[in-house]
């Protein structure tokens, strides 16, 4: 946009997002409320409202390449939502340029584009029209949209009777089934329940595999890590950081003054001082192959677990144990190893060359004892991590391999399908760690 008007630039490729010296201010009117007595005695005389302005975007320069997924984070009021609204063409710029190449679709707030008196089905066609799709195009997508939303018979009820979660289901389902070059999604995904959030993330990943560009505003670091490879931190309407996700989230937490370790202690708060001979896991870090701290991984990536230990007194035969648990708290994998004689402070690491887990949230718990590890003992510290969903496998264990068909088949001859390369397993990695 230039001077507040959208500019169709031939230099912007489909799926490309461009902000050039983008600036936008909003006027604020400060007026003290008055009592009924003051209104009766003075009327409107002497009323002078104080005016000021807030700069939501301050000469922002940003370029996102087609097919890229970028997380937009920052404090409340940093300019995240204003950036999306300017890119979507909802709010004009005061100066500069904001443009999305190709067709953008947006999900910026609950109920946006919905008529409360229309049914969900009618609002599907209304939203499609707002994004430039005719009735025939939306008819072809209607069944898939209703199935994805899981609204059932509520699709024929007025939207004003929907809960916020139902509005999210319908709104995201519509956006997810439109052919878009750019997806602009705000924090609204946080309204949905956990299972629908995971479903949304899978769908977003599928659209990105098809070449769509994503700009995602979220305060949930797990969602950012799962999908994005780049993070832009806004502060006071300007870009404060633009780079890799792990570094960006660390920068953001330092900005907030909330930087802390990656794990939580499982020890009872009233446990008191360490007993003689006991060993405490004071920190548990998860890192990738490059040594960067991570909380989200892809199936098949390398994972390195680093334990920082503190020994209250020397121990002759220390044993360390690691356990991976799924979202229900059930054990997926456990391994332990004898460290030997230990004292003071030390570091212990466990490396998984290829993470053989499928999409979901997991807990990795660790504990160290000065004798053999009791099988039912409470582990000392836990860290939450996520594995990004895949489109060619479901469950927990990543056993994806190669499909092959020989002989007569409906396709007309021998075929070989390779949905994914073979992956190693946690069990294979654990063989190097057994005593």
Question: What distinguishing features does this structure have?
Answer:
9 helices, alpha/beta, 18 strands, Rossmann fold, six-stranded mixed beta sheet, Coagulation Factor XIII, Chain A, domain 1
The CATH superfamily of the domain at 17-103 and 180-256 appears as P-loop containing nucleotide triphosphate hydrolases
Second CATH tier, the architecture of the domain at 17-103 and 180-256: 3-Layer(aba) Sandwich
Distance between the termini: 64 Å
Low-confidence stretches: 1-10, 269-277, 412-435
Number of helices, counting only DSSP H or I runs of 4 residues or more: 9
* Residues in helices, as a percent range: 10-25%
Strand count, sense and closure of the main sheet?
7 strands, mixed
Instruction: Please state the average pLDDT score.
Output: 80
**Over the alpha carbons, how many angstroms does the gyration radius reach?**
27 Å
CATH fold category name of the domain at 17-103 and 180-256: Rossmann fold
Label the structural class: alpha/beta
The ordered string of helix (H) and strand (E) elements is EHEEHEEHHHEHEHEEHEEEEEEEEEH
Shape: globular
Number of strands: 18
